[in-house]
Amino acid sequence: MNAKHQGLNRTFSVAPMLDWTDKHCRYFYRTMSRHALLYTEMVTTGAIIFGKGDYLSFNTEEHPVALQLGGSDPAAMAQCSAKAQALGYDEVNINVGCPSDRVKNGRFGACLMAEPTVVADCIKAMQAEVDIPVTVKCRIGIDDMDEYEDLTRFVSEVADAGCDTFIIHARKAWLQGLSPKENRDIPPLSYPRVYALKQEFPDLSISINGGIKTFEEAKQHLSYVDGVMLGREIYANPYLLARVDEVFYSDSQAVPTREMVVVKMQDYIREQVAKGEREWHVARHMLGLFQGQPGGRVWRRYLSQNGTGRNPQSDILLRGYEAVQATIEQSKQHFAARNN
């Protein structure tokens, strides 16, 4: 499958995750993978145009990085896309997948699957302002609009407007009766529907998202679609990214060790603290770095206990790593003593 539409390789990407994939999280991910396409958490057009915060800030090391926009007004979407391109983002993605009430009440997210003409108008307005790719992340359906024909109708109209890249979350969104948390597992995923979409629209770049936990599963999906997108699995076990370049991009450069990641991120934290950030704003994204490893629980507890509060410990990552190493050494000594 060819995942190189409009100059970006989309073979493997990390999903936009609200309150999680901020610039610190993305910098952390980039220490482990040079090639994975990273997405911002969703940012609304209202926040960008009227908000006082710097919602589009990112580190240059994050490339390739895409901005995910929430909105439905073509003029506002175009304005924000132009800002994103001027700042150096590599892509702008339209959120047509989030099922939360807050998003729905703002007339963006998954509810827009019922309004393909609105999405098409946004695509046209955005592409008129920028040269970078404008893409769509959506569901396979919403509520009672969950037939395959509903999905193809949506994709066809949006593609006719000029969008050639879709990231499909393979679970329909329930906008009535389920919370977003419940909608993470209900109803069941339908990967074959995404495969069928790629067969019907072979000239489109189709990436698949939802419930993918292992690289073996990801590679199976790549037999049918152009790209895979992982989200919560990467956040829970971020060191998976250290193998992405070799597995998905045939890049055999040396894999960074966890210690190397810790040292690089501690340097980054020092830079951010000098700019007024708190250590915890960065460290919170790193709780899963030792997931499934000896000392993983010690790492999580150390960061949680010493990184929060009014007086967080300085150099928390290095001290946390020392605690992990001390725990491993104690375990080795205990094991040796039992076997002597």
Query: Which structural class should the secondary elements be placed in?
Result: alpha/beta
Mean pLDDT: 92
**Shape from CA axes?**
globular
Q: How many beta-strand elements?
A: 11
CATH architecture of the largest domain: Alpha-Beta Barrel
Count of discrete structural domains: 2
H and E string: EEEHEEHEHEHHEHEHEHEHHHHHH
Query: Per CATH, what is the topology of the largest domain?
Result: TIM Barrel
What is the fourth-level CATH superfamily of the largest domain? Aldolase class I
Number of helices: 14
The helical percent reads: 40-55%
Strand arrangement in the largest pleated sheet: 3-4-6-7-8-9-10-11
Unreliable spans are 1-5
**Major pleated sheet:** 8 strands, parallel, barrel
Strand content: 5-15%
Could you tell me how far the N terminus lies from the C terminus, measured between alpha carbons in angstroms?
Answer: 56 Å
CATH level 1 name of the largest domain: Alpha Beta
Rg from alpha-carbon coordinates = 21 Å
Site (Interacts with tRNA): 95, 181, 184, 297, 300
Domain DUS-like FMN-binding: 14-310
Binding site for FMN: 16-18, 68, 137, 169, 209-211, 231-232
Function: Catalyzes the synthesis of 5,6-dihydrouridine (D), a modified base found in the D-loop of most tRNAs, via the reduction of the C5-C6 double bond in target uridines. Specifically modifies U20 and U20a in tRNAs.
Question: Nutshell version of this structure?
Answer:
By secondary structure, the protein is of the alpha/beta class.
